[in-house]
Amino acid sequence: MRRKIIAGNWKMNLTLPEAKAIASGLKEKVSSQTAVEVMVFPSALHLHAVAEILSGSPVITGAQNAYPAVLTAMTGEICPAQLSDFGIKTILVGHSERRQFLGETSEICNEKIKFFLNSGVRVVYCIGETLAERESQNTFTVLKDQIKKGLFGIESAKFKDLVIAYEPVWAIGTGKVATPEQAEEAHAFVRKEIGALFVGADKVAESIQILYGGSVKPDNIASLLAKPNIDGGLVGGASQKLDSFLGLIK
Ligand code: PEP
Packing angle between helix 16-29 and helix 242-249, nearest 10 degrees? Predict the structure, then answer.
């Protein structure tokens, strides 16, 4: 049985007081009795404060990005060893904004995923097609390529620390949510492709959590989560207000 996850991607939004206020509200309302696992991904600048507020709470604080290396000369970057000083052991990889605007290819994602998993970090790997790719009937080719390249060479035993987020780019921040049927079709495909990665991968495919992301709101999440292959949501806008974040968790 795959546990559902609601993950909030705060991107480069929120001031420190705003981030702290949402974290405090989550700490108050989310308990060990909460059915879903809750994660937040604040700006790197806010990680320390948010992780401190959420310490002792089941809400997981994760980083939006990190560099795949140990402590070294790499100006402007942060690494898992530094994140672990704050108890941060979850990192997003391959978000479409990083793919689109910062040149993060699936090959770079693969390097990060391998390094982070080998460092004992849990990874949420984001994949998804653009509108042009969907309209040219290339959705499944793109997803297959992102899975094959991004997950190349990852050992079976490491998959327990991997979560996939299917985020159609045309639905991110646009208010245009995929229909539950469109999302389910993509999730089922992703699960099938993971199951074909290596001999015995069908077991990891069955247990891996696949989140949907793209204009998820409290009023559309239930219909998405009702689908058998959708194991939660990676949420931008609606996670950046306490009321709507709590609405998603509920
Ligand atoms: C995201 O940033 O991953 C995302 C899905 O954003 P939104 O929910 O705002 O579409």
Answer: 30
